[in-house]
Amino acid sequence: MEAIQLGPLLIKKSYIVLLFSCLLAYLYISMYLRSKPDILKTVENHLTSGMLLWIVVFKFSIIIFRPSIIWTNPYGLLFFTGGTNGVYLATVGTTLFLYWKFHQSDIHIKYSTIIIVPSILIVVTGYFGILAIL
């Protein structure tokens, strides 16, 4: 089975792997910025906002890819996600959002790129690597 059941809660294994991959990326960011605690606090705040934005865009991107669902099955918005295209849209949107927020916080573009690009690579590599092992 591709899910773990905890009482009435059913959690897909891929979500647990994604969470673990994100934690690896956070570990990279905190190790990289350990000598700059003020920048780390700002980055943590923006990453939290970015994570929430990613979830919302992923969840509701079905409106962009299948707008007819609003009229045919409005409750489907609660149950369906945007799928693979939603993941791509949410990742691109969140990446642009983070660059914008880092720019507003006066974090240099060098730090922004050193934080964002390897973090995305860590998440993607960790996710697909762990799924390949499982």
Which helices and strands, and how do they pair?
Elements: E1 3-6, E2 9-12, H1 13-32, H2 37-60, H3 62-65, H4 69-72, H5 76-79, H6 83-104, H7 109-133
Helix pairs in contact: 1-7, 2-6, 6-7
Describe the structure.
With 134 residues, the chain is mainly alpha-helical. The chain has 7 helices and 2 strands. The protein has a two-stranded antiparallel sheet with strand order 1-2. Strand 1 and strand 2 form a beta hairpin. It is globular and about 50 Å long. The termini are close together.
Radius of gyration: 17 Å
Distance between the termini: 12 Å
- Spans of at least 5 consecutive residues with low confidence: none
Largest sheet composition: 2 strands, antiparallel
Strand order of the largest sheet: 1-2
Categorize the overall geometry.
globular
Return the average pLDDT rounded to an integer: 90
Structural class by helix and strand composition: mainly alpha
Helix content range of the residues, please? over 70%
Order of helices and strands: EEHHHHHHH
**Total strand count, please?**
2
Descriptors:
134 residues; mainly alpha; two-stranded antiparallel sheet; 2 strands; 6% strand
Quick structural summary:
The protein is mainly alpha-helical and 134 residues long. It has helices at residues 13-32, 37-60, 62-65, 69-72, 76-79, 83-104, 109-133; strands spanning 3-6, 9-12.
